[in-house]
Amino acid sequence: MGRVLILDGMWNKSLAAVRSFGRKGFYVTAGERTRLAAAIFSKYCSRRWIYSSPVISPVDFLKDLEAELKEGKYDVIFPMEFSTQVLLTDTANRQRIERYTRLPFADVNIARKVHDKAFIMQYARERGFGIPTTFVVNDIEQLAAIAKETAYPVLIKPRNSSGSRGIVYVKEKEELLTLYLKVHKEYPFPIIQEYIPDGGEVYGVGLLFNFQSEIRASFVYKRLRSHPVRGGPSTLRESVKREDVREIAGSLMKSFQWTGIAHVEFKIDPRDRKPKLLEVNPRFWGSLQLAVESGIDFPFLLFKLAMEGDIGPVMDYNVGVRCRWLIPGDLLHFIKNPERLRLKPSFFDFKIKDDILSLSDPMPVIGRLASVLTFLYDKEMKNLLHGGE
């Protein structure tokens, strides 16, 4: 039916894509820099490909990739992680890759901008989109004034990171400078942002735009649980209809003349019940399996878009579908949540669909458990431990 190359096989979203295409009869190659990766263990892999690290050895990775593309004659390539996506969509590399296959992802310069939390918060505020109060720091000397001006608690957030990596919760003024400098050492000039009080739901919006920046698919879900418990990648979520966040997300991304996949996250502020923008992910998101389970198969739709030039809008999906990331995400939430025995739905409700666990494709859970070994000895993998939404 078709031939696809799916990179970054470590992640749940990559497994979702492998299963989506495999069940439709595609020839699926899953790649990663280690064999200990969930997607590579799937029975739907026609080929398992181990490559040089795109982070540590990008030149070697691109050389490996070009050889694989020449040999494999793939219709479409899917970089699933942002670091891989920007490497492939860099202008010179894109030209090199598109000699062999289709790469239906957004312009690298726009993608880098929207991924930068400082940029996207300033951009959204200037255009009237709701955001948490945000301070963009360009000089450490600003911190004293910000410390006095802001209300607490606040969050320190790296400008470019995924999931909960680098995010620090600051309870009071006296902590701000020390904690900021600690984060700044690893993630230069993070932003400082008000902590929206508990009591408001968190929503994610998945979007697909055609090459004329018209929405071709949209999907909204509500986060039910996460790890870390206070806020991080979702470990349990539910498909919902929520027109306000869907429209805001679509309008925001359309203003960039966006093409391809995007994910936008909001939190409802319990003080005024209005959605506030948290971040934009210019890539596939961690809980992709829920969208597929609900009837919006984003990987397949992106494939069709790449092959056919355009597709009809796909906006309808099943609501009330729940999907979780049990191992290790929801398990860690259960261990660390003092209200663990009063969770709704119960942690012990094993009828809930899962990102990894599948009776028809059981081996990826072995890949996920085995991948823990790489986190123990591999520095690059340790840095990815909190990757997520």
List keywords for this structure.
alpha/beta, 4-stranded parallel sheet, 7-stranded mixed sheet, Dna Ligase, domain 1, 15 strands, D-amino Acid Aminotransferase, Chain A, domain 1
Topology order in helix (H) and strand (E) letters: EHEEHEHHHHEHEEHEEEEHEEHHEHEHH
C-alpha-based Rg, rounded = 20 Å
Structural domains: how many? 3
Strand order of the largest sheet: 13-12-9-10-11-14-15
Description:
- By secondary structure, the chain is α/β, with parallel strands linked by helices.
- The chain has helices at residues 12-23, 58-72, 82-89, 91-97, 108-115, 117-126, 143-149, 173-186, 243-254, 288-294, 298-308, 326-336, 364-377, 379-383; strands spanning 3-6, 27-32, 47-50, 76-78, 134-135, 154-157, 168-170, 191-194, 202-209, 215-226, 234-240, 260-269, 274-281, 322-324, 353-354.
- The strands form three sheets. A seven-stranded mixed beta sheet has the order 13-12-9-10-11-14-15, sandwiched between helices. Strands 3-2-1-4 form a four-stranded parallel beta sheet, with helices on one face.
- α7 (143-149) packs across α8.
